[in-house]
Design brief:
Blueprint: E1 5-7, H1 11-20, H2 31-38, E2 42-45, E3 50-57, E4 62-70, E5 88-90, H3 103-106, E6 108-113, E7 115-120, E8 129-135, E9 141-152, E10 158-169, E11 180-182, H4 190-194, H5 200-205, E12 215-219
């Protein structure tokens, strides 16, 4: 699964994101400016909080960035609390599940993050060991998502955008930490991902585990366990956890 992640902006992140989106089929001249405006600059985003997603505005034929609630709120939901159970959508069943099958066809999005957290069960320890996972090349990580807009009945039908991160089987690098991982899209996949005309089979082919070697990771402090802790020290290697390696 993927339940916590980081989104923080620096000049490198913005410049690299612009380069990554050069091949998409939609104009995106204003994308980075809008992304910077809505990026939360957080080191510990948890379910029911908000993050910045990128999606296609098909009416305007462009890409745009918006803040969205982490955890999908289906259109038919009576209250937003259901979102806590809908932070992840399984790639294997996304075409059949009522809450997702329409969204995977028409409301695909990207969650651009710096990295995410995972917790590893250690037989000799009572508590799980947290890890910070990012791309080995330290480029922004582009997670596949689906999104939708819910009308909040408690606030006069005001629109609330929300999203689920699509997950797949973990690759070898992550399998000893969790059996699932988020779908990480490479730049060449962005064009077909945003194109509504891409056949379902080709979309499904994009939802594969990351290639071996794409990820880098290191052990971090248990301070990350509390969502109220939110500072850059969370992603620093934990010197008390022993040597950190890619393989645990």
């Amino acid at each position: 699964m993927c339940g916590r992640f980081t989104q923080y902006i620096d000049p490198y992140t913005l410049d690299r994101l612009f380069e990554l989106f050069l091949g998409v089929p939609y104009p995106h001249e204003d994308l980075i400016e809008s992304l910077a405006a809505c990026y939360p600059n957080s080191y510990n985003i948890a379910p029911t909080q908000s993050g910045a997603i990128i999606h296609a505005d098909h009416d305007a034929n462009t890409l745009r960035a918006d803040r969205a609630h982490f955890g999908l709120i289906p259109k038919w939901a009576k209250e937003r609390s259901i979102s806590a159970k809908m932070i992840n959508a399984r790639s294997e069943t996304i075409w059949e599940k009522p809450a997702y099958r329409g969204l995977i066809s028409s409301r695909r999005a990207i969650l651009p993050i710096n990295g995410f957290y995972e917790w590893q069960a250690i037989p000799t320890q009572k508590t799980k060991q947290p890890w910070y996972i990012q791309r080995a090349d330290e480029h922004p990580m582009l997670l596949a998502c689906v999104w939708d807009t819910w009308l909040d009945p408690e606030h006069d039908g005001s629109p609330v955008d929300s999203f689920s991160i699509i997950t797949t089987d973990a690759n070898t690098q992550l399998s000893d930490k969790h059996h699932r991982m988020p779908v990480i899209l490479e730049p060449e996949a962005l064009g077909p991902w945003f194109d509504r005309e891409t056949p379902p089979r080709e979309v499904s082919d994009l939802l594969a585990p990351a290639a071996e070697g794409v990820l880098g990771m290191h052990r971090i402090s248990g301070r990350v366990n509390a969502p109220s802790n939110n500072d850059s020290a969370l992603i620093e290697p934990d010197s008390d956890a022993g040597p950190a390696t890619l393989w645990g």
